Amino acid sequence: RFLANVDQFPMIEPDGRVVFVYRGPGVDVALGGDIAGFGNKPRMQRVPGTDLFYFVARLEPDARLSYAFIRDFKAMPDPLNARKASVTGYDDEMELDFGDARREVSWFAMPRWQPPTHLDEPDLSRRGRIESHTFKSAALDAEVAIDVYLPAGYEKTSDRLPVAYIHSGRMARDELRIPTTLD
CA-to-CA distance for 180 and 127, rounded, in angstroms? Predict the structure, then answer.
C-alpha cells in the first residue's frame, strides 16, 4: 500500500536522502550508473521474505543522475520511474564499454537541479565545425580516425588556440554534447 501511494521514484527525502526501490523477480540486484561510478555497483538490500529491494544514498541538492538496476547481472531501467534516457558506453552489467550499442536507463534530479545552459542550442554565428582526419597508426597497424572541433571564426584568426583532447569519441559528441558546449 505504501508504494502505491508514492508519486515519484526514486523517493527523494527532504534531508537529501534518495531511496531507490525495485520490486520484482531477482536474486541479486545492484545499482549502476552515475551514482556509483564504473566498476562500483552497490548491492541493493532485500527486505527479508519479500521481492522488495532498496538502496539509500545521500546526494547533493542540485544533482542529476542516470542509473539502472542490475538484476541478476543484466541492466534494466527502473520500472517505477517514467524518466528514461538512451545512452552508450555501458555493457549489460553497466560496465564501461566502447561499443555503439544504446542502453535505456532511468534518470532523476534532486530538487535544486537546473538544466545546464551550456547545452542550449547556440546562435548559428557561434557554431563551430568538425573536421575528420585519418592517419596510419604503427602501434595499432590500422587507419585511425580523429575528429577536430574548430570554433566559429577559426579560419579568420592567426591566434594560437587552446587544445583539449577528449576521449570517448561518439559518446562525447552525442551523449555529452561536447560540440554544443564548445560553441
Answer: 8
Residue 119 pLDDT > 90, yes or no? no
Tell me which residue has cell 539509500: 56
- What cell does 161 get? 588556440
Task: Please tell me the distance from the alpha carbon of residue 124 to that of residue 130, in angstroms, as a whole number.
Answer: 15
Q: Is the pLDDT of residue 27 over 80?
A: yes
* Residue 34 to residue 40: CA distance in whole angstroms: 10
Which amino acid would we find at residue 57? A
97 or 42, higher pLDDT: 42
With H, G, I as helix, E, B as strand and everything else as coil, classify residue 180. helix
Confidence of residue 156 (pLDDT cuts 50, 70, 90): very high
User: Can you point out the beta strands (E) in the chain?
Assistant: 11-12, 17-23, 29-33, 45-46, 52-58, 64-71, 74-76, 84-87, 103-109, 129-137, 142-150
Integer Cα distance of 43 and 30 in angstroms: 4
User: How deeply is 108 buried, as exposed, middle or buried, from its count of CB atoms within 10 A (0-12, 13-18, 19+)?
Assistant: buried
Is residue 25 within 8 Å of residue 67, measured between CB atoms? no
Look up residue 174 and give its DSSP letter.
H
Cell output for 5: 501511494
